[in-house]
Amino acid sequence: HHHITTSPYHNITISQHHHITTSPHHNITTSPYHHIMTHEVLEERILQFILRVIRLGRHLPHAAEAYTIKKQLLRSSTSIGANHRAMRRSRSHNEFFAKLCIVVEEADETLYWLELLVKAEIISSEKLTLLIKEANELVAIFVSMRKKAKLKKDE
């Protein structure tokens, strides 16, 4: 059970529907369907997601509506990373929970803008399938973390 924490407030387990193998002989799982994901692993995953959104932004058309959505998408996606970092450095559980709530909101907003790009026919759904899937997974992870953090907050 490897669990890396940065302060007493950051020991919330992050789980999702994939297995993670840390070495050929060691598979960290809590059940056949969940694994432990450290905040470092999640931070890297968030960074890769943001970089994919930035690359997408570079390829969007120059029409006014695409530009408006691109600005909102870049703002909300980069805010996920900045607030996740602030959350990890929080000094109290209340501060941690407040930042986590912002992360949930920004991730959900990012998902909204990605879906809008498809619905407005600015970009094909095929081109955004994987990015939207990752956005959905990140939202699910953050919502799960928020539920666990709320239980701890209410203790």
Structural summary, described in words:
It is a single chain. Helices cover 66% and strands 5% of the residues. It is mainly α and 155 residues long. A two-stranded antiparallel ribbon has the order 1-2. The longest helix has 30 residues, at 125-154. The model is unreliable at 1-35 (pLDDT under 50).
Q: Based on helices, strands and strand pairing, what is the structural class?
A: mainly alpha
Residues in helix, %: 55-70%
Radius of gyration: 17 Å
Average pLDDT across residues? 82
Strand content: under 5%
Major beta-sheet overview: 2 strands, antiparallel
| SSE run | EEHHHH
Number of helices: 4
User: Any idea what the shape is?
Assistant: elongated
- Which assembly state applies to the chains in this document? single chain
How far is it from the N-terminal to the C-terminal residue, by CA? 24 Å
Give the low-pLDDT segments: 1-35
Which strands sit side by side, in order, in the main sheet? Answer: 1-2
What is the number of E strands?
2
